[in-house]
Amino acid sequence: MDEEALLKQFAAQFAHGPDDADDTDAAAAAQGADSTANQVADDADQSPATFDTQQFLNGLDAIFDRHTAATEAGPYLEQAMVDAENAGDEAGLLTVLNETMGFYRSQGRHKENQWIVQRALELAARMGLTTGTSEAWATTLINCATSMRAAKQYDQAEDLYHQAQSVCRHSLAPTDRRLAALHNNLSMLYSETNRPDKAELELREALRIIEASSVNPDADIDVSSSHTNLALTLLTEHKLEDAHWHAAKALEIYRTGHLEHSAHYASALAGFAQVCFAERRYADAVTGYRHALAVIEECYGKDTDYWRITADNLRQAEEAAAQAGVTVDNAGVAGDAGALPQSGSRLPNSPAQGKTGANAASSPSTVSVSTGSAGAAEAVSACPVSGLKLARAFWTQMGKPMIAAKYPQYAGRIAAGLVGHGSECYGFDDAYSQDHDFGPRFCLWLTDEDYAAIGEQLEVAYEALPRKFSVDAQGRVTFEAHARSDASGAFPSAGAGSPVTPRAQGANRRDGVFRIGDFFESITGYHTAPAQTAPHEWLMLQESTLAAATNGEVFADPTGLFSKTRQGFKNMPDDVRLALISKRLGMIAQAGQYNLPRSLKRGDGAAAWLSIHEFVQATASLVFLVNVPMVVGYMPYYKWQFAALRKLSGSMFALLPNVGEQLETVMRLSSAACYGGAGFGEGGKGAAPAIEKINDIVEQIAVDIVKELKREHLTTSGETFLEWQRPYVEDHIASDDPVLKSL
Predict the structure, then answer these.
(1) 490 pairs with which residues across the strands?
(2) pLDDT mean over 640-662
């Protein structure tokens, strides 16, 4: 397959990715109440005195929902520009311009789009955005850069991307997925300008951000897409082994999360097929392309460039297979060549990942940290990398070699990783988390038989591992096997080996050597997950408990036993999930829709405050349950509940994505609503405005929940008092076990 075909395939992988996400970012800030397409069309016939941005976005969504964008979107956007300008609404006009850039780009109207780009930049300057670090300015820069890249104006595009990076460093959190989208887009520019080495670096950074922001990287579509994109870039660099690992990992994620019915599964299949073709594994390439075509046809139809490019690649793969004398049956399954990697299959270590930390040379800006042989604190400064990254480096550079040297006969039987209690296991740790129970650590999980043979000795060897390390300017961690003779360039870190609290010692220790069953029992009370036919046991397990048992990362699991046990706790029976959704609907109705307004009318601020607490807890839980814990993970305990909810809501594929922000608004207004705002920073305006706003948000959340239940075919009712939705949901519970039914 020639380079041009490869680049076409590469471009196809991004069809659903960061470009589209960037455009919707501009829209998200202004989205609001629903309106019908007819109302929008009627309003568009006039030049209003004011411009309704929310109504504009709703109307645009309606056009795309009707699949009439090719004929209707252009005139609609042009009229909206006129209306916003006539109304003097600069912010509204900037939103229209951002949406127009995305549409023109998708239609190949690049010449016209350059005018839109110029107009957007001039407007942003007039609004004073160009001297700040607002998200609106960052979004505009990204959309302008992507439009210029599509028009092959690469110099201008690169400059705009670099400006966007500078703004995003100040306006976005380090794990914000929009940063990953920016790195993805920049990697495409480097690929299109024959700089694959730079493209690779950008994609690795995008993957790092997405994994860090993911509730469950092992079942996250965005993580899978990043692996596919990276695999295709590595392919252009002829790094076949690394490309194969990332392409196979992408497929593994879809299968782990049972996401094969996603339209984007085709990208992972085609990406793996592309790698197989380069490896001359033509039968596997044919299998992958045929499967990808089937998904594309089902989701998009045949009349698309996506289908045509993939079909052309399949034709070339079939011709190459025929020339090589390789036969592939009509179902597309290779005869004597390896089939596509199946769910549960283990992948080799990624060559690039295996070398990143251990062989990294220290730079002048390296931070060196020493924690002592037993991790005792010698603290003065915070560790600059996350606990999970530190744990993986500690395992790769110290733990794994120690096992290979001292216990070679067990090296293929020991699982390693970091799972369980602790902020770093959720990926939420920061400098404030490092004052206790933080440092280089990982867990080693053994079968009962292996633990009896080497468990105690292995624990001693683990405790003796050197814990002195350095972190360079790129965030690469290097552990030192021997302490330096002098302390030049080194200083101890408060976060690197902080005091171990009593709750993390003894039977509650969070690292070291464990029997697999004992490890899970210490968290959940069960050696293995309850049976799928034991709903009463599942209902006794709190979501936060299940979150602790299934969080973190597994670095190695040669036998697959630990991962299988862990997966059991992820696999909540769907009947149990539906029963919990019903319970949450009941509490949302009882606490938020019924008792909260009554308590406020009575003037019982304490009861109202507790009602808000119950409403928020139930609603947040429902968001995780609707998104399916197998895919997004479970809601963690209260400290990290909203951190996890924000990450989930930021996902491109999240359901009920706006609820988290609405709940935070409810909590912010609760002081004024419950106690009149006196002394709570609400301006002394009294309770009435806050009460009205909270009640409106509660009802809007209920409306959004009903829409989602309908979309999931869990209800046919439009009733927004959620107690009345419970029978509809419970009708979908297959089991007759009375513990699952509340009515």
Answers:
(1) 368
(2) 87
8 pLDDT higher than 60 = no
Task: Please report how the helices 135-150 and 18-28 are oriented relative to each other, as an axis angle in degrees rounded to 10.
Answer: 140
Residue 323 neighbours by CB distance under 10 Å: 9
With beta carbons less than 8 A apart as the criterion, state whether 292 and 312 touch.
no
CB 398 within 8 A of CB 466: yes
Mean pLDDT of the chain: 80
Task: Single out the residue of 518, 514, 333 nearest to residue 415, CA to CA.
Answer: 514
Please report where in the chains the tokens 């993580």 appear, as a residue: 223
φ, ψ at 381 (rounded to 5°): -145, 160
Collapse the DSSP code of 564 into the 3-class scheme (helix H, G, I; strand E, B; otherwise coil) and give the result.
helix
DSSP labels, 9-24: HHHHHTTTSHHHHHHH
Write the single-letter amino acid at 107: Q
- CB distance 240 to 275 below 8 Å: yes
Is residue 346's pLDDT more than 80? no
How many Å apart are CA 603 and CA 596, to the nearest integer?
A: 11
User: Contact at 8 Å (CB) between 678 and 684?
Assistant: yes
Mean pLDDT to the nearest integer, 564-575:
89
CA dist 181 and 139 (Å) reads 11
Which strand ranges, in their side-by-side order, compose the sheet holding 553-556? 512-515, 443-446, 415-418, 553-556
Q: Phi/psi of residue 678, each to 5°?
A: -65, 120
How many whole angstroms from its chain centre is CA 72? Answer: 33
Distance CA 270, CA 349 (A): 22
Q: Is residue 25 a contact partner of residue 171, using CB atoms and an 8 Å limit?
A: no
Other beta carbons within 10 Å of 125: 12
Residue 450 CB neighbours (<10 A):
20
State residue 167's pLDDT score. 83
The Cα angle at residue 554 between residues 374 and 427, in degrees rounded to 5: 75
Structure tokens at 489: 């360039």
Helix residue ranges, H only, 257-304 = 265-278, 282-300
> Which residues neighbour 613 within 8 Å (Cβ) at sequence distance 6 or greater?
none
Distance CA(141)–CA(144), nearest Å, equals 5
Residue of 325, 341, 344, 249 lying closest to 291 (CA atoms) = 341
Cβ–Cβ under 8 Å, residues 119 and 155: no
> What whole-number distance in Å separates Cα of residue 675 and Cα of residue 606?
9
pLDDT higher than 90, residue 661: yes
- Angle, CA of 106, 110 and 115, to the nearest 5°: 120
What is the rounded distance in angstroms from the CA atom of residue 549 to the CA atom of residue 416?
Answer: 15
Instruction: Please choose, from the candidates 489, 503, 499, the residue with its C-alpha nearest in 3D space to the C-alpha of residue 379.
Output: 499
C-beta neighbour count of 657 within 10 angstroms: 18
